[in-house]
Amino acid sequence: MIEVNDIVEGSVVGITKFGAFIELEDGKKGLIHISEISNQFVKDVNDFLKVNDKVKAKVIHISDDGKIDLSIKRLNEDEEYLEKLEKSKAMFEQKLNKFLKQSQDKLTDLKKHQENKRKFH
């Protein structure tokens, strides 16, 4: 059963001025509105999608009568967000490791300094 926020795959079965109809793997159909195709301005859906194209999309709404609204744009935004999050985590790990090494070096220097003080007193 398809739910909002699911990632689905299907084939473009029709193109109109206002979007593209997608037949999903389970045989249901969904619509990708022209505003949900790309972050770029989409004047003509045909510039981005063709009949029989395989697409991956995010389910953004399911109406009471079962109509499924899809978005390629939001799927890409999710993927971009996850990539940024991973890079951010990696940068944090690098910074943390650098900080830990510097702290350890300073502690080692401090201990050596204190030991040297004790030897001379």
Describe this structure as you would to a colleague:
The protein has 121 residues and is α+β, with helices and mostly antiparallel strands. It contains one helix and five strands. The chain has a five-stranded mixed β-barrel with strand order 1-2-3-5-4. Strand 2 and strand 3 form a beta hairpin. The longest helix is centred in the C-terminal third of the chain and has 49 residues, at 72-120. The protein is rod-shaped. It starts with 6 loop residues before the first strand and ends with a helix. The mean pLDDT is 90.
* Proportion of strand residues: 25-35%
The shape is rod-shaped
H and E string: EEEEEH
Main β-sheet: number of strands, strand sense, barrel status?
5 strands, mixed, barrel
Number of strands: 5
Any chance you could write out the topology, listing elements then pairs?
Blueprint: E1 7-16, E2 19-24, E3 29-33, E4 54-62, E5 68-71, H1 72-120
Parallel strand pairs: 3-5
Antiparallel strand pairs: 1-2, 1-4, 2-3, 4-5
